[in-house]
Amino acid sequence: MKARVIGLYLPQFHPIPENDRVWGPGFTEWTNVAKARPLFRGHYQPRIPADLGFYDLRLPETRERQAEMAREAGLEGFCYYHYWFGNGKMLLERPFQEVLNSGKPDYPFCLCWANHDWSNKTWQKDGGTQMIAKQEYPGDEDYVRHFNYVLPAFCDHRYITVDGKPLFAIYDPYNFADVPHFIELWRQLAEQNGLPGIHFVAMISSTSTIRRKEDNTLERIMPNTESSADVYNNILTLGFDAINSFGKARAEMISQGKYKRNLIRLLYENLSFLPTLTLDYPKVVEHFFAPEDRWENVYPTIMPQWDRSPRAGSYDGVYVNATPENFRKHIEMALHIIADKQEEHRLIFLKSWNEWGEGNYVEPDLEYGHGFLDAIHKALH
After folding, report:
1. Which one of 11, 113, 139, 245 counts the least CB within 10 Å of its CB?
2. CB-neighbour burial class of residue 104 (10 A; exposed 0-12, middle 13-18, buried 19+)
3. CA-to-CA separations, 115 to 25, 83, 86, 213, in angstroms, rounded
């Protein structure tokens, strides 16, 4: 069975002035990755890259090799995180812009608008919040400017489409109150520029504790681990064509108990002296997929590993036994979920290709070599 696996791609592997001002000259994703230390016996830290080394995404050779490895593993393409903060403010745009302008690598891609604030909380749990870039939604003039920036990518032959329309993902549909109008405006602009439309995908957890009300404000709700129908329909009514579901919260709630899981997170966020929270990858991810992930317009996510301790300490939990073999079984479960969909809609998002700071990547490292890439290849072939 053919599956369309798209790898989420982080571009924060080159210095930028905004990071330099907060963290010091030369800061990249590698800075804290390399400084990480084991938190318990057998904890795999620091995670050291193998084939590509501590790469710099300003180098075209690195981008070419990444595409080669992804293609060999069976990925259809990359989904680059795209940072547009409003009023034309962007960050980390250089790697993708060079891919677009140069035509290389000749490998499919799409964009995910990572529409969230940037602050030092990503890398520093204590010490006060310093805003690096505030996410803003100034209105139509900026929406048009944003569209015109993205339009050359939409028109590129490499751009990934669904039903003939360029796929554009939005990371946070909850806190973007104006998203229904934004979607409608961009659809109009797409048609005016000769495109058949845009395939809008909302990225959300399959089990949520928030929902959008009709007035676009948010309210707290009790999480439902038995069905994701209400969560998905709540977002689809905003105008999205599809959902990219992420099952981590659901899986943890079922494996730990949803009330216990939320209490544990609360304790670990506030009590730094607690021992590291560990979760057994194979036992947790067997609950990763919701029944509604079988819907034609829902694209599930696969997660190879998870260890955000380089960024966030231990409060978010460290997944143990996240081996290539267990990842392969996880992929096979996802393939079973999408098996009855039309071939065009058999999309699976890989979270992620290269989130090294979250211990959430498939690029080769010194511990497993090409193991996670091989797991994808074996499962797909």
Report:
1. 139
2. middle
3. 25, 7, 9, 20
pTM of this prediction?
Answer: 0.96
pLDDT grade for 123, boundaries at 50, 70 and 90: low
- The 10s digit of each residue's pLDDT in 138-195 is 999 999 999 999 999 999 999 999 999 999 999 999 999 999 999 999 999 999 999 9
- Residue identified by tokens 């098996």 is 339
Contact 360, 17 (CB under 8 A): no
Burial 11-49 (b: 16+ CB within 10 A, else e): bbbbbbeebeebbeeebbbbbbbeebeebeeebbbebeb
* Cβ contacts of 321-324, under 8 Å, gap ≥ 24: 321/280, 321/281, 321/282, 322/281, 323/281, 323/368, 323/371, 324/368, 324/371, 324/372, 324/374, 324/375
CB 331 within 8 A of CB 376: yes
- Collapse the DSSP code of 194 into the 3-class scheme (helix H, G, I; strand E, B; otherwise coil) and give the result: coil
pLDDT tier, 273 (very low <50, low <70, confident <90, very high otherwise): confident
Tell me how far apart the alpha carbons of residues 312 and 222 are, in angstroms, rounded to a whole number. Answer: 26
